[in-house]
Prior knowledge:
Blueprint: E1 38-48, H1 51-55, H2 69-96, H3 112-121, E2 126-130, E3 133-139, H4 149-168, E4 173-183, H5 193-206, E5 211-213, H6 215-226, H7 231-246, E6 248-250, E7 256-258, H8 263-275, H9 281-301, H10 306-325
Amino acid sequence: SLLRTRPPPNHRLVQRKPKQRRGPDVKNDSYDQGQVNIFDYAIGLLDVLNQKHYLSQWGVEQDFVDMRPKSLVAFKKTLGTIHQLRKALSEFTEEFNGEGRPPEFRSISFPPDIDAFFEASESHVKTSAFSDTVLVYTPVYRERGVSHSKSVLGVMIGIAIAHLSGLADGVATRGALEVDLGCEDMFDELYGPCLSKAHQLESELAGHPRILIGDGLIDTLKIMQTEKTDPYLSRVNKDVAEFALSIIREDHDGLNILDYAGQAMKNYFREAALKAGEDADSVCDLYKRAENFASKSKLEFKETNIKLYRRYTKLENYFISSRAGSNSSTY
């Protein structure tokens, strides 16, 4: 017998009904049959586009000495791009997870309100990668049933940064964010419906460079808004969930997307830049370069590839509509 989960204390065991989302009594489905822990995970999946084209140009001369020019470009666009994306996400999670209770205080007992403060500041965002796909993920709930709101937001922010930075550097990515069941125990990596659903959103529905939002994530954020567990953590979770919902919008086709160029996300990035001692204008430059990439790509493929032309037209329109929404002609 392999399968079991550890539910938070004081939460009854239930079996998931079709399409039933998590609430106070169904935070972890539990099958007490073995040694594997299954929990709800927030997951972000990001796929680098156009890799097949550059991988086909990996032909080189003998001993890698006299490389063909096309091969040099191909290595940069494949190996270089994937390495940089993985490195950037790894650095983000290390910094994002770096807050919380300092190591020297972890063995000290504090009053409940101080403990709650440290707990709210903790984050457990992880990354993994395979081929040209990267994952950012975290368990949704703590052991005692309180939401990991900061960690869930961290998954969203990490995907937003990776997607926007990639576009600014001329790398098109497409992805999805979702919440569903998953397991890390069997293969020392995340596996389960959460990954399957995120992949389905990205590969079958996203269509062009954007980040789709699954119903599971939206439902989870709405639950966080109304949680009544620890008094302090519940207030924190409510505020975090409200911000997370503010960076989600409905796209032109009725699907929900991560609004990484919306006003709330731009303000977040500016504040983060100032906190890090950087110029807030660097954030504006990032958005400008990303939109310029969309515009140039649209023109590049206008006469040669109608599919890619439409893909980048939609991406350009997103940036234009985002600027219009903030009543500004620039970022």
